[in-house]
Design a protein that fits this description.
The chain is mainly α. Helices cover about 70% and strands about 5% of the residues. It has helices spanning about 15-35, 60-75, 75-100, 110-120, 120-150, 155-180, 190-220, 225-235; strands spanning about 5, 10, 35-40, 50-55. Strands 1-2 form a two-stranded antiparallel sheet. Strands 3-4 form a two-stranded antiparallel ribbon. Strand 1 (about 5) and strand 2 form a beta hairpin. The longest helix has about 30 residues, at about 190-220. It is globular and about 60 Å long.
Length: about 240
């Protein structure tokens, strides 16, 4: 008898486990990368050099996975994946903050440097966690709406459309919570726009990954139904 989640047949359980582990692992890592801000030179579009959270680059891993899962198993299982990732992210964040409070080993010379980074990271982590949660759920919702509207055609459209819209929400929520009151309000929109432009570029680059994941999972480049229907057609 095959494993089930919510009494629904689990198509390709081993492959789903690999995707779930990769997704959860990415969100476990991002908690340590979020406080690292790197320069983002957008002088070509008139925005100058802005700060960009290095953890945002992991969106290139997480969004293709949720889109592939939504394509194969539907929105319910994609949301289940989001809940797992957010839980892992929250747990990892709490561990980082607990480590700030924990006493250092005698003569360890880097405790103050560690504290200087992560004692100020609480607001960034809360911002990232909030933005991630809403953006990922929005991505799944829009993906399914586009899939229904197009009759299951044009995977590239629902992948790019859902991620582009949800990434705008992600950038807006993250940078507003993280930097409102810290940087001038006149600079904040430019920071959000700059981060969003980078995220849109990553969205365009992740489309081939989504196609490859769907092909790996089902043997097809896109499917009109869900994994249960594919399983019924292809057999065990």
């Amino acid at each position: 008898m095959k494993p089930t989640i919510d009494d629904e047949p689990l198509f390709a359980p081993e492959k789903f486990a690999i995707l779930a582990a990769t997704y959860a692992g990415a969100w476990g890592i991002v908690a340590g990368l979020t406080p690292k801000l790197v320069p983002l030179d957008l002088s070509l579009v008139g925005l100058g050099v802005l700060a960009f959270s290095f953890g945002s680059f992991l969106h290139a891993v997480t969004f293709p996975i949720t889109d592939a899962v939504a394509e194969v198993w539907g929105p319910k299982r994609a949301r289940f994946l989001v809940y797992i990732g957010v839980t892992v992210y929250a747990f990892a964040s709490l561990l980082y903050l607990a480590a700030v409070i924990a006493p250092p080993a005698p003569d360890w010379p880097h405790n103050e440097a560690y504290r200087a980074i992560f004692s100020q990271a609480g607001r960034l982590l809360i911002a990232s966690l909030t933005a991630t949660f809403f953006a990922q759920l929005l991505d799944v919702y829009i993906f399914e709406k586009i899939k229904t509207a197009t009759g299951g055609k044009w995977l590239w459209l629902r992948n790019n459309g859902s991620t582009a819209i949800s990434q705008l929400a992600d950038a807006s929520i993250f940078y507003t919570i993280a930097f409102y009151g810290i940087i001038p309000n006149t600079v904040l929109p430019a920071l959000i726009l700059g981060a969003y432009l980078v995220k849109v570029l990553l969205t365009l680059l992740d489309t081939p990954m989504v196609y490859l994941l769907v092909r790996w999972l089902t043997g097809k480049w896109e499917i009109k139904g869900d994994g249960v229907e594919v399983e019924a057609k292809t057999g065990p």
